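new request in #modeling-help
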Amino acid sequence: MNANENQIYHDSAIKHVSGKSVYINDMNAPSDMLHGKVVYSPYAHAKILSFNLEKALQVKGVHGILSYKDIPGANQMGPVFHDEPCLAENIVNFIGQAVFLIAAESKEIAAKAEKLIEIEYEPLIPITTIEEAIANNQLLSVPRIINRGNANDAMQKAKHVLKGILKTGAQEHWYLETQTSLCIPDEMNEMMVYSSTQNPNETQAIVAEVLGIPRNEVIVEIRRMGGAFGGKETQGNHTAAWAALLANYTKRPVKIHLFRDDDQVMTGKRHRFISDYEIGFDDEGMITAYKVNLNADAGATADLSMAILERAVLHADGSYFIPDISVIGKAWKTNLPSNTAFRGFGGPQGIAVIENAIDRMARFLKKDATEIRFRNFYGITDRNTTHYEEEVENNRLFTIFEQIIQSSDYHKRKKEIAEFNSKNEFYKKGMALTPVKFGISFTTAFLNQAGALVNIYQDGTVLVNHGGTEMGQGLHTKMQQIAALELGISHEYIKVNATNTSKVPNASATAASSGSDMNGMAVKNAIDIIKLRLIEIAIDEFNKKKHPNPSNAEDIVFHNNFIFDKLHPDRILPFKELVMMAYLQQKSLSSTGYYKTPNIHYNRDTGKGHPFHYYGFGMAVSEIQVDVLTGNHKILRTDILHDTGKSINEAIDIGQVEGGFIQGVGWCTTEDIKWDTNGKLLNHSPDTYKIPTVQDIPADFRTTLLKDAPNYNTIRQSKAVGEPPLMLAFSVWLAIKDAISAVGNHEIEPDFSLPATNEVILKSIEKIKLSGK
Amino acid sequence: MKATSHHIRFILDNQWVELDFQQSENIRPSTTLLNYLRCLPSHKGVKEGCAEGDCGACTVVVAELNTNNELEYKALDSCLVFLPMIHGKQIITIENLEQHIGKEIQLHPVQQLMVENNGSQCGYCTPGIVMSLFALYKNHHKPEKEVIEDALTGNLCRCTGYKPIIEAAKHACIHQGKDHFSEKQQEIKQQLLNIKKDNTSILLYHSEQLYMLPQNLNDALKLKKQYPNAVLIAGATDTALRQTKKGEIIPQIIDLSQVEELKNIEITDKSVIIGSSLPLEKLKSGIEKSFPALFNILKVFGSLQIRNIATMGGNIGSASPIGDTLPFLFACKAVIKLQSFDTKRKIPIEDFIIGYRKTAIKTDELIVAIEIPFIPENVILKSYKVSNRKDLDISTVSVCFRLQLSNDKKVKEIIIVYGGMAVQTLRAKKTEAFLNGKTWNKQIVETAMEILYNEFTPISDARSDKEYRKLACRNLLMKFWDETK
């Protein structure tokens, strides 16, 4: 085994840089392939009175136009709740809702046909804001509530109480590869589905349901996605279902690759939240009581909203012990595309509220918010249970805090910033330190299971199949490394296959940051099973020579492409040779593997349990400068210290930390989504929807992984890293607030919301200036 | 016209490709380079991310002859490039970068360093990023951080946070631009020269479209006279969107991108005369010292890929209320030089822009040049652009100030021109009138700001609400004062 086995490059890196990575839209199209087009509602809320497809069907090159009437199976594609029609029936509930599907020989022909579809709508009044949804009692499902102690009493007894409302905005995933699926009908009912999906198992289920066929007729395969970030956890299913319906109808391959603007209009976003809170605390800034109502904009259907809301409720505590706490989460239906998973999955929305509340406490008490954060961190031996009664084990908040305060030179720079601000009228600097504590596991306990299928071939090469999907995060690379380390062979002999539901069935979505943890264990499990067989053969072989000390199974080691007895290193076989021996001795060189995360349970009714296997921790310190006259800002420096346990691949983990952080920075700053009062999305292309560019990253950007921090009871002592770093962007968000606050000499609480666009920043500054006059 | 030709030629995969659109069903002249490449079996590496030049996933590099007949490598968004624009050029795509030596494949240094610095995650933006890095590699041998960032501004990556890509760029550019392309450079140059010598204008007929690619000004003027309804393009960064975003097929196009007479930059003792079809990136490098106010605007104008084809003629001709160069041109009292086959005239920019996307151009005229008088030494000229994202974003508000003070610190002349505040670029004449003759101090400026705040009634849109526009508009005057006090 290579000494650098934990430093290999992304398994697709060379293909990526040479344009050879094949995404679904790049696959060699069968010559009879048709292009699918989704015709969607232009109204946020309307009745469909009538429609006529005759004229459109006559366009040369059109091979089919489907309405809900043409769906052979169930007209349903809701992942959890069955509240989401695949094609609208009598009513449309958001702009972008699919109504018809067209299959044509080219995209242009499909577009021509679309214009000839006759449809009569009767517009109804849409609900386009959370406020309207609340006023109209559009509650999606039962609220999610967690209480500990008596927050009302504690609030009354609190020395100080601050109340407020925080709005956090939506966020468009802006994966570079829009939603795509290619469906190829095979004999009888069989359907081969290539789908850019994080959840092939669910895509398979939904395709089977809409086609009215059993799941064993459908195979879903995905080699890689061009980014997903949660946006393809459920909503990749939609495009697959539509393409499958068209392929089934025309009996020809059909591909749907959404145009960018259509993708932005049709698909759900990160949930907007409006949260009102009350926080009680003493003179020193110890939090004694916290009450928060988290109100999420679910959009038109449930999708994953309740699970997302649940994670928001479970993360309302941030990194802080709060003795008496009441958290109420409600999801509200609006006439917008159904909001969906997005990196962090509600966690960011829950954490933003408490971080902003602490920021307010600091201003109120005239203390540094960092000091207040530190004071309220979960303890190591006491004050260490969450509001849902899970113990915060292996708490690394203090270790990280001590290190980052030093490495970021926090106190010195804080002083320098104050000095800068006292001398400058039109530019103000701000700085903030924010922590993240993020629970790892699906909160829906049964999802915490994974499968794998490992095949070793006669030439000694290995093909690893697992249920996780590759979206750029390097999951396949880590699986390749795990297989290499467990088999003691070089990673070059190992290939990770495209994810395929016929190889590994019933897998959970690659989500909740759990991909490596769960699939890694499943791969290891499969390999362990094969290794037992190989060891048996090796021992037989070694012991043929009747040594006085025969080899024992427990002493057999797989290392450096060999297998040997560690007590008698001369008893050694090349891995490849052993594999051939196994084959000749009629032993199976293939095994499935399985894993379920241990000890996960959560009772939604009581709001208590142990929903997380462990926590991911990290902290960031960011310094920014605001232009007081325009509200523009720039990030001067960010220091991140993040805990990834004993990293399986440091470069990949740093990539996740930095990439997640910058994605969070986008959400916190320039990524502003606006719908007009008719429910029409105004930012439907990158022309007006602004994700960070290379110019928007911190001028000085320092990322470090926490050293000597092995995790417990996880694959190779590593930690999940996908989602937690996104929330480190609150350091930028609150540094901006700190700079705004400097305009009023930190005496006035700035108006603030998320994202802090230049518009929000400037208006907040102007208000402070006015109240100062 | 003496003679015309009816096909275009370009080099792809080291071979000449000749396209004649007359018989073609699948492609028409205005088919974008991106869509053309993706139809080929071996160029699926080029990706569509947005079809509007905002993400750079479709970036390719063209090698073309400059005015000195040297080969230049430019990154372009292939989603915005109509095929005739690449006539007489070499197209280099992601598939062309690696080198095959026997059975071995050797990555280009920019590719190798992207691998070694973990510069890709999902990989979808990567081909575009690699091509931008390749252009950087060919053009800069020791790029400063600012140059690297500028080269990458037009490429969105949603996964990495960009840092490893910057690292890759830093380490890649140490080879003095040498690679397997340098070895073939002379040969390619000669081939392109042979095409360039042929000054025959090109008319491309297709059942749905007539695409005209004049090779000289005279032919261009003749064609415009003959086809007064033809849409004029040079970089087409605006016009292309009508096709890529709205599916419109433009029936007649006159493409000025290959008319050499329109790409000059002439400096007289009184003014700079800028050819209307000079790409903005070329302009930018030419005016850094003479017009820093324009330079500052061009620095945040689109991305390098956009500036490599976009022109000032286009920015003026489209007369958008948020055209980035317009406030500057107003403040400079620039003059637009118009020409038809029969006439020539000059018109001040302020009289040329007459409404929302409306100009005083006649149907047979072309904008041939923009004349910008030099600013006297005692005049201060400054431009500002406010946008939601600093780079590759359209202005929320933009402004150019021109100020001349008398010896006693009084305002002798002030011109204040805003973009984004009305249906067209407009001067803040009430505020100007107030300030004229007043002492240039903070108190006066604060009073002027209140006038300015009420001078315009901007709209709320996807970029910003009207209140923000009014506040930023007002505050920019203070910023200008602060920087000139």
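bot summary: The domain at 109-178 of chain B is CATH 1.10.150.120 (DNA polymerase; domain 1).
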